[in-house]
Design brief:
Chain lengths: ~280, ~270
């Protein structure tokens, strides 16, 4: 029960405060992103930092991404097989499976995996460094924490999320093919013939543009949460959780807008005129 | 009289709705060792971070060598910060680097030092703080609290700073290690021409190292018209000071505070 001395906040002022916080956070994140981009252009990452980040983001994430892709491909076949079989068109499954993986599921799932596995770890690491004053120590030794800590993580994510997506796409397609051919006994030749025609260069382009943006968003959000979080052990935990939740929501929002934009661009460039090279 | 090397002019600091410092004026001259004392939460560490430009005052200004640090462009601010050495409360060693890389960090970041020179400087600084080169390959997690502080001091001294800032250098250490750190502060002053600012609540450190002592009082227990610096003087003057708030702190007497907290009956010594 509210104390008589403390005036209860009206729902309206509560919403205003949430709105103000949101705008403040967004402004702070935008400034943080600009500073990171500025450092990327001004100076190379500090020696050794990029290799460590590439290893953490790439090598250590590759196995889990490959397994995720494999099972997504397999489950897509399990879910769609009955419908295709009813139409006696099982070999056409390869089209929908591959298209779903390359255009949507591959990029989104890899980004989600990365936000969970690498992003929250980044946030927790930087938040711990903040709590233990290591970020201040960097500044005192003449090193920008953004240049030393954020730039290598940002570059590693931007470079490697598309490559990890290619890996997930590949294992996903193999998983789908394996399940169709060896479990559901779909004719291998027809499956691959349909698979061949299912993907156009535009689909592959779309499937690689998205993860580049996802990688940038994950690294910036997670590093920002880590460096700007509240103090204490609770602050570190909260930074890691918030980093994942915000990254996940932003991945989905970005996915929607990038898909909308790229589809409109495709329609504008090629569908209007009957030339359709892609 | 020469202009102060470090100064705070009418500095106030607020974090959100919480005021931490109010209208602080402080001048520190070259070669001085100033000790800032006061209860936990009275803003001592904030003073240190203002002096090196890690925090920006809400009002007023912090100057170093005549320059307002927070108004400097980033490159110049970095250059000025390299004239400082900062020993953090928890040493703030980089977890992912070993002792050698921690001490060599500032030298490498600055660039222009050959590997042999860096090696010699690291060896020399570790020796100065009484640590052998055999610990150079150890990670901070493998060190004791006292060793961490000494490595932190070696790292801060590696760039030959003009100003040393110590944030509670003896907190959490046993009495022997406390004295070792106090001696190291004195030794640093003897061996290097540094100006030092020490933040502490350890009276042994105060008596041993201070040229001048400044005592801050928490804003929450001051009226709006009272100044936040409640004492300024030498160690001898501190012993003579009759201000009840200063005496309580110097003698470690909690009776008045307990009474304020409404716990006098149950906790105060009878």
């Amino acid at each position: 029960m509210a104390s008589a001395d403390v005036p209860e906040e009206s729902p309206q002022s509560n919403w205003t405060s949430i709105g103000q916080d949101f705008v403040n956070e967004l402004g702070d994140l935008s400034l943080f992103a600009l500073q990171t981009l500025g450092w990327c252009l001004r100076r190379r990452p500090a020696p050794g930092t990029l290799v460590t980040s590439l290893y953490t983001v790439g090598v250590r994430t590759a196995p889990v991404v490959a397994v995720t892709g494999l099972f997504i491909g397999m489950v897509l076949v399990v879910q769609s097989h009955a419908s295709y079989q009813r139409l006696d068109m099982s070999s056409l499954m390869s089209r929908s499976v591959n298209l779903s993986i390359v255009r949507e599921l591959g990029p989104v799932l890899v980004a989600t995996m990365l936000a969970g596995r690498v992003g929250s770890a980044m946030a927790a690491e930087l938040a711990t460094m903040r709590v233990t004053e290591q970020l201040d120590a960097l500044s005192c030794l003449g090193v920008s924490p953004i240049h030393y800590l954020v730039v290598p993580r940002f570059l590693a994510c931007v470079l490697l999320v598309p490559l990890l997506t290619i890996l997930a796409d590949f294992t996903g397609m193999m998983g789908g093919a394996g399940m169709s051919i060896y479990y559901y006994r779909v004719e291998s030749f027809h499956y691959w013939v349909h698979a061949q025609g299912s993907l156009k260069p535009w689909d592959l382009t779309m499937g690689l543009i998205k993860p580049t943006f996802f990688g940038a968003a994950i690294s910036l959000i997670c590093c920002h949460r880590g460096m700007k979080g509240t103090a204490g052990a609770e602050g570190v935990g909260r930074a890691a959780t918030e980093a994942f939740v915000i990254s996940f929501v932003v991945i989905l929002i970005l996915d929607f807008f990038i898909a909308l934009f790229l589809n409109s661009l495709y329609d504008y460039l090629w569908t209007a005129s009957d030339l359709n090279p892609l | 009289m020469a202009a102060p090397l470090l100064s705070l002019e009418q500095v106030s600091v607020r974090f959100g709705s919480q005021a931490v410092l109010r209208q602080i004026n402080l001048q520190i001259h070259k070669g001085e060792t100033v000790v800032v004392i006061g209860e936990s939460g009275c803003g001592k560490t904030v003073v240190l971070k203002l002096l090196i430009g890690l925090l920006e005052p809400t009002t007023g200004q912090a100057t170093f060598d005549g320059k307002v640090l927070t108004r400097l462009p980033e490159k110049e601010l970095t250059r000025q910060r390299l004239r400082f050495g900062f020993l953090f409360q928890g040493a703030a060693l980089f977890d992912s680097l070993n002792v050698y890389d921690n001490v060599a960090f500032g030298l490498r970041a600055q660039g222009g030092f050959p590997a042999a020179e860096i090696h010699e400087k690291v060896r020399q600084r570790l020796l100065e703080v009484g640590l052998p080169m055999t610990i150079a390959s150890k990670k901070p997690a493998e060190l004791s609290g006292g060793m961490k502080k000494r490595v932190g001091l070696a790292r801060a001294l590696a760039l030959d700073p003009e100003v040393m800032l110590y944030d509670e250098p003896t907190t959490g250490l046993d009495p022997i290690m406390t004295d070792v750190i106090n001696e190291l502060i004195l030794q640093t002053r003897r061996q290097h021409p540094v100006t030092s600012v020490v933040v502490t609540h350890d009276m042994k450190t105060v008596v041993k190292v201070a040229d001048r002592i400044i005592m801050l009082y928490p804003l929450s227990r001051l009226t709006p018209s009272e100044p936040q610096i409640i004492f300024q003087g030498t160690a001898a003057e501190l012993q003579q000071c009759q201000d009840a708030r200063v005496r309580q702190f110097v003698e470690g007497e909690a009776r008045e505070r307990l009474r304020e907290l409404g716990q006098a009956n149950s906790l105060a010594p009878r």
